Amino acid sequence: MKLLAVRRLLRIQRVVIRYRLDDLLFALPLPWFLRALRYALPWRWFPRKPLDLSRGARLRLALQDLGPIFIKFGQILSTRRDLLPEDIADELMKLQDRVPPFDSQVSVKLIEEQLGKKISEVFSRFDVEPLASASVAQVHAAQLKTGEEVVVKVIRPGLKPVIAQDLAWLFILARAAEKLSADARLLHPVDVVSDYEKTIYDELDLLREAANASQLKRNFDGSPLLYVPQVYWDWCRPKVLVMERIYGIQVTDLATLADQRTDMKMLAERGVEIFFTQVFRDSFFHADMHPGNIFVSTVNPWSPQYIAIDCGIVGSLTPEDQDYLARNLFAFFKRDYRRVAQLHIDSGWVPAETKLNEFEAAIRTVCEPIFEKPLKDISFGQVLMRLFQTARRFNMEVQPQLVLLQKTLLNIEGLGRQLYPDLDLWNTAQPFLERWMRERVSPKALLGNVHSQFEQIPHLANMARDLLERMSQPHALNPPPSWHRRRDDWFLRLLGTAHLAGGAVLAAGGPLNQLAYWPAGIMMAVGLYLVVRR
């Protein structure tokens, strides 16, 4: 791996030199020690011919040459026009679905190898010219023998070695950062890179993407908010995916959306609702929502519906993370900064010894200026800088399991800013969150929770029986100590009492082998305890 990492570093250096990216860097206002670095770079000691390319094109081509990890970084940047100059943002937009395709004959060969059949045996029509091409795969239009219009997605060849080299360098940098910087340790860079490693390798498995798409389609079945194309499982393989072809308008094609008189306000608000529905109702969210993967249906422009493709990256939250985030957001919308501060301390995101009043005041300073403002009037660059300063001051730790969610939030916020800059994010999101919180404590939800707890009783019964059988037959060479036997006698008396309550007879402190029969009283006692505790 070390040799691969060195080779990859040299490759990155060559790309930087070829596209003069160091010129772009040194054109920025940098500290003196970084400006002095230019004189230590050997390739800058000699005159170089100027490139007949704009700075945006140079950056795009460099990211393209460097492979999928760098392309995905460019895709995220392309949604943040508030943070980038217009010319660079326009060029990076091309990374969403206009990455140069690989050889079509190679594509056909890969598809036939995966399907185990000739193209002509599966499709009545297959377009050799790619319909779109991105960082990980390219897509061809086709028609099945049964008449359905489909798209065929095929993974680019030779990706794994490149990704492995990039990840090797990311791990090296992350470990070095953790060793050298206390601030970096709060960000858990190694854990973040580990999560990203899993995510990027999962994206190379198209069967996983097909399963994700099917789940997302089921979650929004019949919904006016979101449509997900159908997957044709008979023709899906690890490196080939066949799914329904959709016809829509790319979400960033504002001119076409305006021509069909799309309700842009409703479109933006539905985008927020889709995000919150995926995160809190389903705990299953599309985590690669750059504009190349999001379209708008041409049906009913006055009630616009999104269409989502490319479900290779999805995220989910544990019930604990869901609950924590919901309570944080709810307190945030209510401007209850003391509650936000207390939740951070209770969850361990900041040290327990943090002074609540000071932390509350810091959160208020960051958050208060952005309320009651539309997206166009909020400087998220300044907000992020203040958040970083606050995190550093109070030793706040980044949660690696939420990195995908944070990335998705950046995409959503960038899209909202383009679609409807006057969107009131707070008033749009708050009603949904309040409704979700009410539903969680509704009688129906509580009854379902009690029912799920009772369903665990047979499992707990089996566990208790196995435990008691092991206690009744200790290993001959390792008998339990006297204190353990005394504890067992006390525990047996307690169990005997519970068994009597269930109508059984068990002498207190009686022989252990009597416990091989399941006591119904224990089952009820444990079940009721779990329900009350829940």
UniProtKB/TrEMBL annotation:
Domain ABC1 atypical kinase-like: 94-343
Group of enzyme by EC: transferase
Main location: membrane
Biological process terms in GO annotation: regulation of ubiquinone biosynthetic process; ubiquinone biosynthetic process
Active-site feature positions: D288 (proton acceptor)
EC number, as in UniProt: 2.7.-.-
Gene Ontology CC annotations of this record: plasma membrane
Protein family according to the UniProt entry: Belongs to the protein kinase superfamily. ADCK protein kinase family. Belongs to the ABC1 family. UbiB subfamily.
Keywords: ATP-binding, Cell inner membrane, Cell membrane, Kinase, Membrane, Nucleotide-binding, Transferase, Transmembrane, Transmembrane helix, Ubiquinone biosynthesis
Domain of life of the source: Bacteria
Localization of this protein: Cell inner membrane
Binding site for ATP: L131, A132, S133, A134, S135, V136, A137, Q138, V139, K153
Bilayer disposition of the protein: Single-pass membrane protein
Annotated function: Is probably a protein kinase regulator of UbiI activity which is involved in aerobic coenzyme Q (ubiquinone) biosynthesis.
Transmembrane segments: 515-532
Protein name per UniProt: Probable protein kinase UbiB
Encoding gene (name): ubiB
HAMAP family assigned: UbiB (MF_00414)
Metabolic or biological pathway: Cofactor biosynthesis; ubiquinone biosynthesis [regulation]
